[in-house]
User: Fold Ribose-5-phosphate isomerase A from Acidiphilium iwatense.
Amino acid sequence: RSCRRRALGGLIEAIRMTTQDDQKRAAAREAAKLVEPGMRLGLGTGSTIAHFLDALAERVKTENIDHACVATSVTTERRAAELGIKVTALDGVLDLAVDGADEVEFGSLHLIKGLGGALLREKQIAESSHRFVVIADQGKLVSRLGERSKLPVEIVNFAVARTLARIGELGLLAEPRKQANGKAFISDNGNVIADCVLPGRIDAVALDRALKSIAGVVETGLFTAGCDCAIIGYDDGSTRCF
Ligand code: 5RP
Assistant:
C-alpha cells in the first residue's frame, strides 16, 4: 500500500510540476500585462518571445490596443506580422523592450544572450528602450555567467580564423557556430557567430570591453547593463520578478 501511495504522490507531483515551456509562457504572459496603449515596443527573439507575441497579439485583438513594434530578428518580424502585430523600423526611443535570455546572473542581472543569433539587434533595441524586461524559465537563473551557456560573439565574415585566435588570447575557447547541416550559421546581419566557453568567473564589463576592442568583433552577447526587471517562470507555476 505504501508503494501505491508513493506512486500516487509522484503522479500528483508530476502533474503539479510545469514544463520549461509552461514556465516560459507564464513569464511571457506576465510581461504582456506591462503593455499599455500607444506604447512603442521592442520585440526580442526566441521561444519565450514566441509566447510573448501570442499574448501580445491576444491583447491587441481583444482590447484593440494601439501599438508600434520593432523586431530584433527576421523570424520575430515575420511571426509578429502573421499575428497582426504592427512592426516598424527602429527610429527613436522605445517605451518597453521585452526579450528572452540564455543566462540571467542572480544579483547583478547581467545577461548572456544570443543563442538565437540575434544578439546585435537585441542589444540595439535594449539600449533604445526606456525599460528593458527579460522573460525566462527558472533554468536561466545562474550564480555566475557562463555556468551553463556559451557566450555568443558576433564577428564579421572576414578573416574569421584570425578573429577567433584573438578571442582565444583572452582565455576564451571560441568556435564558429554551425547549422545542423554543417554549414556556417550566418546572422541576419550577414555575420558569423563565435560561441565561446568562458574561463570560470569573469568580470563581464572588462571582458565585453576587451572583446569589442578586437578588430572583427561586432558585438558580444554580454548584456552588462542588465535589465530593469527579469520575470522568471517557476516549476510550481508561479512567476517572480527580480
Ligand atoms: C536570441 C536570444 C534569446 O533571447 C535567447 O536565446 C533565449 O531563447 P529562448 O527564449 O528560446 O530560451 O538571445 O538571440
Residues 100 and 236 are 20 Å apart (CA to CA). The chain has a mean pLDDT of 94. The longest strand covers residues 129-137. The pocket of ribulose-5-phosphate is lined by residues 44-48, 99-102, 113-119, 122 (CB under 6 Å).
